[in-house]
Amino acid sequence: MAVFERYSCATAVGAGLLLSLSLPAVGQGVSTWCSKFDQTSEDQRLKTMVIQVKSSDGTVDADLAAKFKFANTLQAILTKANSKQKPEALVTTMVDSFRTVDGDERQPKSHLRMKVSARPGEAQLRPADLVADQGDDSIVPVGFFNRFDLSNFPAGHCGEARIVFAKKPQAGRRLLIIFEGKVTPKELKNENEQLTESDCRPVAEFWASLIDKSAQQRADALQKFYFDGDMGTFGRLPIPPMSFENLGGSNRGQVRANLFINGPANPWQLREWLLRKHGDRLAFDVVTVKDNPLTEFYDTTKASTLPEPNRGAAELADFQDRFKKEMLKSLVSNNAVGSGDAVRALSTEIQMAHGFGFGQGLTAEFDEFESTSQGDADIPKPDSGFQNGIDQAKKPLGSDLTIQQVINRATALTCHGCHQPEGVTRPAGFRLEIAPNVFWPKTLNFVHIDEDSKLSEALSRSFIPFRAALLKDHLCRDLEGAPAGQPVTAELFALRKAAPAPLALGTSSLQSLRQELATAASPSQRAAIQEIINDEQIVRRRAERSLPGSLWPYRRTH
Predict the structure, then answer these.
(1) Which of 113, 165, 323, 547 is spaced 20 to 30 Å from 484 by Cα?
(2) Chain centroid to CA 264: how far?
(3) What CA–CA distance (Å, rounded) separates 108 from 286?
(4) Tens digit of pLDDT for each residue in 503-548?
(5) Closest Cα partner for 394 from 383, 384, 407?
(6) How far apart are alpha carbons 127 and 139 in whole angstroms?
(7) Closest C-alpha to 7, from 544, 545, 476
(8) Secondary structure (DSSP) of 83-122
């Protein structure tokens, strides 16, 4: 059965599971694109969620490759920011972030020193080669991802629009960079304002409209959308996804990378940056990797190995306490397969799509600056005392998950667990079990899309179908309040929760700070104000991450 056939209007039977689907009657408030998901081919539906630059037969989409050259993308960002920098200079700020020797950095929230390993291979990359059109180290686009499922209306965005770039692969010299731009249909004017689902409908319809476009038309539409915020007949975003504001500069979006330049002696790592302004120049500022608690926090005996053992021990104790009181609830919140409740009617792939709807639920003060996805250094290994504490804490929650399955769920939400759940140091045939006889889906040996635009099993069979179902549910619901019948995949969206309460994430204080920054008389004043702005952005990013998603109870960064 084809992946998207599970979401047709007909009843689908697969693996002995019955999934009855129904669409609402088309009426006021229901998008005209609703029926498109049932009247077109699987391949075209796929292109509303992910657009691959290279097809399975090796054919390259020349229009996409030309329009989204790495240098072109960086230049579009710089131009919108009124910066006179060149793309090479901007890339230099990323390469320079690898030039540290083995040392440590201060965690921005807890201020705990955390170890950061040197990346001499990446530090030796030449920025000019990375932005070149050709050459062994030139970077090219490999995939475009619609993450409408990450929408959060109180926080003021309609998910993300992502581009994955990759260096031409060579033995021991791989590099993939993902630009994760927030999609903001309008700026929130004050702390009491939030988006509605209707505000995000034009964005959903833009992605759905790709069904009807030729390859060239699709490339043109994506170029206008990513670089200019132009959605054609669906309107225009005030700030395009590929802008410094939506890649970190205004408490939105981020840039992440998979690093594997150093060769087999140095582990594959994932790191993260925010794109920020420093005067009239832009820079990739290093930040912590989200949803990646320091692995040592799981093991009480590891406190002495931290750069600041006493402070580290206090942070470790706080992490373990909050894991049991806060994180555990979200990790076991949906134990559908284990308990055999009504959600059992869903296919296993859908349940795995977002980990049964479970999330970590911890704020960012425990995150570290690197996630090592090769070897077992970043695999959580709770000591016996912490395991006993988890066991006692989960009993009142009525969960029949084992301790290892709980830890596996926590692992699956980290970069390591999402990108390398099997692990090169794991026993042959190992799978990450997240419920009895249910396993986290497979990757492509560290990545979910590779240099040839090939997609992982996790993406093609789990994540993307799930995201398509969410998009379809949104398009097929009456947003003006008239009865719209049962939602698409009724059993799946029985788990869907109401939009969260308003959150104070307005822009008024940031606007005032930016006005002060623009009129500051001296470089030292500007630097001080910019630091305050950066701190405020961290607070707001943490506040947003504490909210459930507007389309789905839990949001994951991956």
Answers:
(1) 547
(2) 27
(3) 11
(4) 555 555 777 777 888 788 788 888 788 778 777 777 777 777 777 7
(5) 407
(6) 10
(7) 476
(8) ----HHHHHHHHHHTT-PPSEEEE-TTT--EEEE---HHH
- Alpha helices in 332-462, H assignment, sequence order: 336-339, 348-353, 384-394, 403-412, 415-419, 457-458
Lookup: tokens for 403: 């301790």
Q: What token pair was written down for 282? A: 């832009």
| Tens digit of each residue's pLDDT (9 = 90 or more) over 172-231 | 789 999 999 999 998 877 767 788 889 999 999 999 999 989 999 999 999 999 999 999
CA dihedral 407, 409, 414, 420 (to 10 degrees): 90
What is the percentage of the chain residues whose pLDDT exceeds 90? 37
Q: Dihedral (C-alpha) 184, 189, 195, 200: value to the nearest 10 degrees?
A: -30
HSE-CB at 533 with a 13 A cutoff on CA atoms is 27
Classify residue 505 by burial, with Cβ atoms within 10 Å: 0-12, 13-18, 19+.
buried
Residue 413 in contact with residue 359, Cβ under 8 Å? yes
450-486 pLDDT, tens digit per residue, is 999 999 988 887 788 778 888 888 898 888 765 444 4
Q: What is the 3-state secondary structure (H, E, C) of 232-271?
A: HHHCECCECCCCCHHHCCCCCCEEEEEEECCCCCCCCEEE
What is the arithmetic mean of pLDDT over 416-420? 73
Q: Read off the amino acid at residue 544.
A: E
Rg (CA), the chain: 23
Nearest to 464 by CA among 232, 207, 236, 273: 207
